[in-house]
Amino acid sequence: MELLTGKRALSCRNGSLERYKALLVVICQQIKHVDFDDVFEPVIRLEFLHVLLAIVCIEDIEFDQMDIEAAFLNGILEEEVFTKQPEGMEAPGKEELVYKLLKGLYGLNQVPRVWHKALTEYLEKEGFERLQCEACIYIRVTKGGRAIVAIFADDLLIVTKTKPEVADMEASIPKNMGPVSYILGIRVTRDRAHRKIWFNQHIYAAKIVEKFNLTHAHEVHVP
């Protein structure tokens, strides 16, 4: 389409190879209150995550993690956003035309919030209700049992009584990553037999040690 009067088109990044994955990314040229307004994306608070883990341990129930493929591309944009044609993919003789974006695109500031809004609308449509004291926990109670969904950006933590309930969630969210093993870089180890869960940040600690060139430093038992 032709660019509307008073509007501007955002550029896309060049086609230099970074990895073998097809992505179209917008260069950060947006202006607040022109190309976007709110950009926030809430995540579950740590204290509520601790409560959720306590429930999982006490009741010895299923605790799985699901990932939404290309999550940030699913939200419907509220603002009018235009992009130039990607370099090397211009329509012959129509190079001046632009794209009007209907959904989110990587690089846009507002896509995390737009995605969160789309996800919460979907959960409510599926019968989930938001916890009044925590915006990122949704609960659904049916005759078949209870399901709890905790939101971490494009990852979902699923707490259910039985495996069939997990399978029911998979019908809508196909990428089940299995039992939770990592949350925000924190490794989760579970001992179901003794109803215990451990956290450790070994990977994070190793990165800090490497960052400050301490990989060959002498070890001590007391910092």
Spell out the key features of this protein:
alpha+beta; RVT_2; Polyprotein; 223 residues; 3-stranded mixed beta sheet
Topology:
Elements (H helix, E strand, L loop, with lengths): L8 E2 L35 H14 L2 E6 L8 E9 L13 E6 L7 H15 L3 E3 L2 E9 L2 E8 L2 E6 L2 H8 L5 E4 L2 E2 L2 E6 L4 E5 L1 H10 L12
Parallel strand pairs: 1-3
Antiparallel strand pairs: 2-8, 2-9, 3-4, 5-6, 6-7, 7-8, 10-11, 11-12
Fold and architecture overview:
With 223 residues, the chain is an alpha+beta fold. Helices cover 21% and strands 30% of the residues. The protein is built from four helices and twelve strands, in the order E-H-E-E-E-H-E-E-E-E-H-E-E-E-E-H. It has helices at residues 46-59, 111-125, 163-170, 202-211; strands at 9-10, 62-67, 76-84, 98-103, 129-131, 134-142, 145-152, 155-160, 176-179, 182-183, 186-191, 196-200. Strands 5-6-7-8-2-9 form a six-stranded antiparallel sheet, sandwiched between helices. It is flat. The N and C termini lie far apart (63 Å). The relative contact order is 0.17. The mean pLDDT is 77.
